Amino acid sequence: MANVVETTESKIRRILCEQCALSDDEITSNANLVLDLGLDSVDKVEVIMDCEQIFNIEIDDSDVDDLETFQQLVAYVEKLQRKRRVG
């Protein structure tokens, strides 16, 4: 059986699909979390909390509003992961 490594992007994509009942093809890099994917404030908080738990990171509340697109969320989580590994 092949060992498949799941990327940060694919994990966040899975979170969005499960939390918000989205299909994989709806989630494009530039998809706006609210306008394109239909997340409301509660959905966004739940997605953020899931990311924090799965990636063992802490997303600053003051940064949440700046995370407007799927790609911005992925890049932010990857940045926090790098900081955690270095620090």
Description of the molecule:
The protein has 87 residues and is mainly alpha-helical. It has a single domain, classed as Non-ribosomal Peptide Synthetase Peptidyl Carrier Protein, Chain A, CATH 1.10.1200.10. Helix content is 56%, strand content 0%. α1 crosses α2 and α1 crosses α4. The longest helix has 17 residues. The model has no long low-confidence stretch (mean pLDDT 93).
What is this structure's SSE topology?
Elements: H1 8-20, H2 41-55, H3 61-64, H4 70-86
Helix pairs in contact: 1-2, 1-4
Give the gist of this structure.
With 87 residues, this protein is an all-alpha fold. It is 56% helix and 0% strand.
Keywords:
87 residues, mainly alpha, Non-ribosomal Peptide Synthetase Peptidyl Carrier Protein, Chain A
Give the end-to-end Cα distance, rounded to a whole number of Å: 35 Å
Number of helices: 4
* Strand proportion: under 5%
Specify the CATH homologous superfamily.
Answer: ACP-like
Question: What spatial form do the alpha-carbon principal axes imply?
Answer: globular
How would a crystallographer describe the biggest sheet?
Answer: none
The CATH first-level class comes to Mainly Alpha
Q: What share of residues is helical?
A: 55-70%
Low-confidence stretches: none
In total, how many domains does the architecture comprise?
1
Element pattern in H and E: HHHH
The helix-and-strand class reads mainly alpha
CATH architecture: Orthogonal Bundle
Count the beta strands.
0
Rg: 13 Å
Mean pLDDT: 93
| CATH topology description | Non-ribosomal Peptide Synthetase Peptidyl Carrier Protein, Chain A
